[in-house]
Task: structure prediction
Amino acid sequence: MKKIEELSGCLEQDVSIVLDRYHKEKTKEHVFQVAKKSVALARQFHVDERICFEAALLHDISAIVSPLEMLEIANEYGLLLDPAEKKYPFLLHQRISVIFAKEFFNIDDEDVLSAIGCHTTLKAHPSVYDMIVFLADKIAWDQQGEPPYLAMLEKDLEISLQKACFDFIEMQWKEGRLLYPHQWIKEAYADLQEYMNHCSE
Result:
């Protein structure tokens, strides 16, 4: 695993320095946009802004290594791989970012680590922080322009985080964007569907 240089202890500054050092300017712009949106959602839903901010800053920190290196790190740490991760090792980046957050940035807050670790796929029984970072990552996406689903998510977020997450995953499925669904997103979808059904009763 790559060794990250000595850090100052100021997370915002250190993330910026590391991503600059590895020439990840696009990733840096993305994570700071996700952090901004995560804090806004934390305020909207009256939860801890620090947790959302820290998780968002570190959610893509593993971008400093290649997908092949992510696979090597996963094997080194004995992670059980989902078939989707074996086929598309980039999907490991959420879990490798957790390792980097703990090993190099001394993050031990389980809420922060959980939100980092499922920001791409979500998972069953997600916490409010998991859902906020998941959605902020999709809203502040790393492509040009506004995401085509932005209006849908903004409307959903007036109702609940759960509805926004459910509708996003369902849209991905219906549009065939999930070429090889990770088990976690299947479980998240089933869990959220049960939640939505219960709410409509």
